[in-house]
Structures are given as structure tokens and as C-alpha cells.
Amino acid sequence: MYGIDPDADGAQAYYDSLFELYAQWEIDFAKVDDICNTEYKPHDPYSAKREIEMIRAAIDKCGREMVLSLSPGPAALSEAENSAATMNEP
Fold first, then answer.
1. pLDDT tens, 25-79?
2. Angle separating helix axes 11-24 and 47-61, nearest 10 degrees
3. How far is CA 18 from the centre of its chain?
4. Distance (Å, rounded) from C-alpha 40 to C-alpha 36?
5. Which end of the chain is more exposed for a tag (fewer CB within 10 A), N or C?
């Protein structure tokens, strides 16, 4: 629930390596819970959006089609459209 700081060095590389491993394991469904929980990300209300985009980018790079399912937790309704679009992108 604490997530990754999208501005940290290696943040994208971490997700890339994680989804490369999932691809090797032939995973085809990834569920990410509480991704929008701003209680744990008070420093940047947009970090959830950027973290979702990082996860989607990692899936797109991993060489295997995967369904991304988000369970946002307490989420800003203003970001609902972006979250839905990110889940549906191939």
C-alpha cells in the first residue's frame, strides 16, 4: 500500500524487473490494491497516477500480455478517467 516514489532513481527499473519476472512465470493477470490510497502518499497527490503509468509501461515492455486490475482504495474521483484508461491500454 505504500507504493513506489515515481521520482526515485530506479523506480521504473524496479517495476520493469518485476514484470519481466512475472512474464517469465507466465503471469497474465496483475492486481494492484490500494494504488490510489493518498493516506500513504500525502507528499504528492499525483504520485498514484504516475505509479499506475509506470506499472502499465512495465507491462507493455515485458513481452507478455497481462490484464492490469486496479483496486484504488481511497481514490480521487478526479483521476477515475485516467485510471480506467491506463488499465485498458495495451
1. 999 999 988 777 656 555 566 677 888 899 999 999 999 999 998 876 665 666 6
2. 40
3. 11
4. 9
5. C
Query: pTM for this structure?
Result: 0.74
Among 12, 11, 29, residue whose Cα is nearest residue 65: 29
CA-nearest of 78, 9, 8 to 38 is 78
8 Å CB contact between 72 and 36: yes
d(CA 59, CA 76) in angstroms, rounded, equals 24
Return the closest-CA partner of residue 52 out of 85, 90, 18: 85
Residue 25 cell numbers, joined: 512465470
50 touches 57 (CB < 8 A) = no
